[in-house]
Specification:
Layout lengths: L2 E6 L6 H11 L4 E7 L10 H11 L6 E6 L3 H7 L4 E6 L2 H17 L4 E6 L9 H9 L10 H13 L1
Parallel strand pairs: 1-2, 1-4, 2-3, 4-5
Length: about 160
């Protein structure tokens, strides 16, 4: 069975993420979307909310499992019986960063492979941080994130 892990903060999940999930799910028997706790980031949504939003926005993809973790990615992957890491790329700048991360993972754990999937061009400019910034200034995020996520961002930003 081919099990892959697609790790990330997903704060918030965007239509670009969904695009990667849909396409990656066709390549593997199980795709685990793993929300990573990054202590260096101050998230808009807590871990449980991000898991909930991912669960809601990926329910149309039958072979996806949503989870969360903290710690080393290679250890998490082994706990899940996965040997593939999926990373989405938007631009050349993403590739440079992700390439270095993939080489580091390969160095500490030669059994793991990293697969890069380019996002569709219509989502190449979308980032979670850009969505949060746009929304915080009252900009329209319709079509950039799933509808349920858009509503949740709107209510969260109004409370901040």
């Amino acid at each position: 069975m081919r099990i892959a892990v697609c790790p990330g903060s997903f704060d918030p999940v965007t239509n670009g993420h969904i695009d990667i999930f849909e396409r990656a799910s066709k390549l593997f028997d199980v795709l685990i979307i793993a929300v990573f706790h990054n202590p260096n980031k101050k998230p808009l949504f807590d871990m449980a909310e991000r898991v909930e939003l991912l669960t809601l926005t990926t329910k149309h993809i039958p072979n996806i499992r949503i989870d969360s973790f903290s710690g080393l990615l290679n250890e998490y992957a082994h706990q899940q019986n996965a040997n593939i890491i999926v990373r989405g790329l938007r631009a050349l700048s993403d590739f440079e960063y992700e390439f270095q991360r993939a080489l580091l993972i390969k160095k500490i754990d030669p059994t793991l492979e990293t697969v890069f999937i380019m996002t569709s061009s219509e989502y190449s400019f979308i980032s979670s941080s850009g969505i949060k910034e746009l929304a915080s200034f009252g900009g329209c995020i319709t079509g950039l994130v799933p509808k349920g996520v858009e509503d949740r961002i709107g209510s969260r930003i109004k409370r901040i």
